[in-house]
Write a structure and sequence with these properties.
With 642 residues, the chain is mainly β. Helix content is 5%, strand content 55%. It is built from five helices and 35 strands. The strands form six sheets. The protein has a 22-stranded antiparallel β-barrel.
């Protein structure tokens, strides 16, 4: 009965990106079933002969992290800019691209909303994450359309532990701050199961003591900055050994949060309801030793209610508008991999995604307005490895986008090619190029007063050259150095026109920059890392706001005696331009933020935790008019119950 179900699932359309293929003759460890399935990065991890660089944030780094959301986890890394503005949502820009054009995945399942295109990273719990993988430059055609701005794959916890585990953690601080989370799971014969839960909330966030009170903000506690967030994530997998595996993943997050207003204008908003549920069922089926069939089905449901008030009382009688949105995204993918040709791995597949959105203003008695679209990606790719130290990748994709409301279709082509060469075992060079496509969102097309149904898709040509040195030292420690030079040419950039106020396609833009990083295990006690990135854009009529030209970050991990660990993380953001009234802009000053934590193991079961965010209580603004939190001190305990 089980094999019949697997075969049927393989012939259903699916959309979660597949993992690296395995030959059926290889042993399949049930302890790694879910983990392998989650590996959406089709080239593997950085350092395995891939033709483009991949940033990987492993669980070890996540354990050191001082943030409760993935937004804080990713902020220090080069090439990434994560900012919070009007809706207090953490938007990601990769190498200067629009945040809506970044493809965001959880366990290979896309979570971008159909209407606005992006996703709020501040509402993705760190406690649920096993690792994060980021592709900034040229990416495989297997990702399909709408990955022009880069790819972020969030792999949730589960599937990497060989024995059952139960862990509970709690952190507490001022202003009613609490961060509670628990995780349990393990491997049970041919089955793997894992569940994580969390409860996070605070009454507000503090402002820096350097903040000068003005008419819209008194200082002390940031106005309307409270949060309540609860989430649960579940993974279950069944290993069929030489026939493949079947996996189910599901998650739910709900939140209520205030949206702190601008210090330079009157804004009074709240998300009185925010809920996202989603899941996917995935399957790998070994047809023969060399022929594998992969499939997945996914669905995401987002409900939110945004209320605007006339003043800071946030009372029901002072509602300005009450907007509700419901978004359903569903689809899937089907891929066939063939390893029967010497030194080649061939893949062909199709990806389908459908977005349906309905919106209304409740206070105005409006009826629901509906919008719907569908994206289809068909691709072929060949990974050719003529030798153990060389890999050549070439792929082509055909992308189509259909808008139901206007009965209009758009088609475009994409490609990716790359070459990687490992030289003496320690040095690897990579050269890659791609053409990526991003179709306009429903907001770009249909929003009242701004929508433009005649928009063309954004297109970008990306080029990347990188050099990596990765070696073990004679002392038994490890060193790594990475230098990447990139160039991106974008046409038909979608942006608001300062003249008409509508979304339009901008002219051609060219961006280039350098990213470099160095990591060194000095000895068993110290681990030091430093990264630097630069970003430049040339354009005739478009300004890259809020993005620093230079960004520098450093991390120091240390292990002291008596089972004590410490971690420091510093990030410096250079000067950048911010929009002002009219057609003007202003220069925003550089700033630095230092975070740290310490832990002490009392025994194998109990660990004490101390977290300090913004240690120097620095005043900074990621976006003009929206100050970041001041110093926050949290303390708590982690218990390993099993």
């Amino acid at each position: 009965m089980i094999p019949i179900i697997m075969v049927l699932l393989n012939f259903l359309p699916a959309c979660s990106l597949p993992a690296e293929s395995r030959r059926s003759g290889d042993s399949v460890d049930s302890a790694r079933v879910v983990y392998t399935l989650d590996e959406v990065v089709v080239y593997g991890s950085r350092g395995e002969g891939i033709p483009s660089t991949i940033l990987t944030i492993p669980r070890a780094r996540i354990e050191q992290q001082v943030s409760s959301s993935i937004a804080g986890l990713m902020k220090p890394d080069p090439g990434l800019l994560i900012t919070s503005g009007r809706k207090n949502s953490s938007d990601i820009s990769i190498r200067g691209a629009n945040s809506q054009s970044a493809l965001l995945l959880i366990d290979g399942r896309p979570i971008n909303t159909g209407y606005f295109g992006g996703a709020d990273l501040s509402l993705i719990p760190v406690s649920q994450i096993e690792k994060v993988q980021v592709i900034k430059g040229p990416a495989s055609v297997r990702y399909g359309a709408n990955s022009l701005g880069g790819i972020v794959n969030i792999v949730t916890r589960g599937g990497v532990y060989t024995s059952p585990q139960v862990t509970v953690r709690g952190l507490f601080g001022g202003l009613g701050h609490r961060e509670l989370n628990g995780a349990a799971g393990g491997n049970f014969g041919n089955y793997t199961g894992w569940i994580t839960v969390e409860d996070v909330g605070w009454n507000g966030t503090p402002l820096s003591n350097d903040f000068s009170a003005d008419g819209n903000e008194d200082g002390g506690t940031r106005s309307n900055s409270d949060l309540e967030r609860k989430g649960i994530n579940l993974k279950v997998a069944r290993n069929f050994h030489n026939r493949g595996y079947l996996s189910l993943m599901a998650g739910h997050v709900q939140a209520k949060k205030g949206l702190p207003g601008s210090t330079v204008r009157d804004e009074y908003w709240r998300f009185v309801d925010w809920r996202r549920s989603g899941g996917n069922i995935s399957n790998l089926y070994y047809i023969t030793r060399d022929l594998h069939l992969k499939s997945s089905l996914f669905a995401n449901l987002l409900n939110d209610e945004l209320v605007s008030y006339r003043d800071e009382t946030y009372s029901y009688d002072n509602i300005k508008f009450d907007s509700q949105m419901r978004s359903l995204t569903w689809g899937g993918s089907l891929e066939l991999d063939w390893n029967g040709l010497n030194a080649h791995e061939l893949a062909a597949g199709v990806k389908v995604s459908t977005d349906r959105t309905k919106r209304r203003d409740i206070d105005k008695g409006e009826s629901w307005t509906h919008s719907s679209d569908r994206t289809v990606s068909v691709y072929m790719e060949d990974n050719y490895q003529p030798g153990s130290n060389v890999m050549l990748t070439a792929g082509v994709g055909s992308y189509s986008y259909y808008m139901k409301e206007t009965d209009r279709g758009i088609s475009s082509l994409g490609f990716m090619t790359g070459l990687s060469k490992r030289w003496n075992g320690d040095i690897t060079t990579r050269l890659a190029a791609s053409r990526s496509v991003f179709f306009p969102t429903q907001h770009n097309l249909y929003s009242p007063g701004r929508g433009n149904p005649d928009l063309q898709p954004e297109e970008a040509r990306k080029y990347e050259l990188s050099l990596e040195f990765d070696a073990d030292n004679r002392s038994g420690t490890h060193s790594q150095f990475l230098l990447t030079v990139f160039l991106q040419q974008t046409t038909n950039q979608i942006d608001l026109s300062p003249v008409s106020g509508m979304f339009v396609n901008r002219n051609r833009m060219v961006g280039w920059g350098i990213e470099t990083g160095f990591n060194r295990e000095v000895n068993r006690w110290f681990d030091l890392e430093c990264t630097l990135s630069t970003l430049n854009w040339t354009t005739n009529d478009w300004t890259l706001y809020n993005t620093p030209h230079l960004k520098l970050s450093g991390r120091l991990s240390l292990l002291a005696q008596f089972r004590t660990r410490g971690y420091l993380e510093a990030s410096w953001f250079g000067k950048r331009r911010a929009p002002a009234d009219g057609d003007d802009s202003r220069e925003m000053p550089a700033y630095v933020v230092l975070n740290g934590n310490a832990s002490h193991s009392l025994n194998r079961w109990t660990t004490l935790k101390l977290v300090v965010r913004n240690i120097f209580d620095a005043y900074y603004e990621e976006v003009y008019g929206y100050p970041g939190p001041g110093r926050q001190v949290l303390g708590g305990v982690e218990l390993k119950l099993l």
